[in-house]
Structures are given as structure tokens and as C-alpha cells.
Amino acid sequence: DDFSTNKFGVQWSFFNPQADEMKRARYGDHALFLAAKGEALADCSPLTFIVGDRSYETEVTLVIPEGMQAGLSLFYSDKMFCGVGFSSDEMFTYNYGGEQSWMRQKMPVGKVRLKIRNEENVITFYYMTDGNSWIQHPWQMDVSGFHHNVFGGFLSLKPAIFCTGTGEVELRDFVYRGV
User: Fold this and answer.
1) Which one-letter DSSP state was computed for residue 133?
2) Which pLDDT value is given to residue 155?
3) Which long-range contacts (CB under 8 A, 24 or more apart) does 28-32 make?
4) Predicted structure pTM score
5) Element housing 59 (H / E)
6) What is each CA distance from 31 to 3, 67, 111, 164, in whole angstroms?
């Protein structure tokens, strides 16, 4: 998605949206601007999409202003997710439905390209801050247990873009491909 047209309801949807959730999204110059919501990944109503492949990769570029955190995750519910997020000066790691604060790293970032590779339920995160080379996140995650039999709700594990705090994140150049 180059964000040149509105694909809400076809490709994109918010998790557990409020009646006025669409006020958070606006399009402009091949970008989607998404207003921050909530304090953490669990309460931010992330932007999700359904995948059709058992193994896949997804990428997106995020421009993150001060005062917020944004990232890419795999989201089952507000109680179970994993992901990687960035603020203007730190990288955050999420697994088992919460931040793994011991993995937090100082890292000044204004713009980051993120990638998730889901290969048979083994998740590898990558990020790129220089525009040239991917850096593999040091922690791989197994999400084979992120499903209805464990957490209920008849939901599915979906890639999700999240943003919390204040301000709005700029999303560009979203890519999805089966592997």
C-alpha cells in the first residue's frame, strides 16, 4: 500500500475501534498519518490487517515525532501481542502481552523502516535506520500459542501498526509478501 487511496474496511481496520476511531487517520502525499492513542500497545487500538499466508513478511516506514512511540507488531488482543516499537530516542520490545523492559535500548530515531518475518510462527523483527541495511532484532519469538484455544475470543493474530503517546506517526511504503 502506497497510501495513495483509502483502503479502510478492505485492507485496514482498527482493533476494537471506538465510534470515532477514523478521526485518527488522514491521508496525504502517499502517506497515512495516524494519531496516537493510549499509553501502551495494549490500549492503543492498533491498525491491523488480515494475512492469507502461513509464512510472510511485512514492512513499513514510520516517521516518528517526539512525544510518541510507534512500531510494528503481531497483535492477537490487548492481552497478547509481540512487537518492536521506537520513540525518538529508544527501541522497545514486546512479547507475551507486555513490554520486555530489560530489552529497552537507547537509540535516537526519527525515521525507521520495520520488517516482521513470520516463518511458521517463528517471528523475526528487523529495523533499518540508515535506509541501506537491515538490522536483525536480537530476540526471535514463537507465536504458535497466540490463538483462540489459549486466549479465547475467536480472534486471529494480525500484523499491526501501533502508535501511543501524543502526536501522529507518518506511515509510508507498506509491503506485504508471502514467503
Assistant:
1) -
2) 67
3) 30/2, 30/3, 30/4, 30/172, 31/3, 31/170, 31/171, 31/172, 32/3, 32/170, 32/171
4) 0.93
5) strand 56-63
6) 5, 20, 13, 18
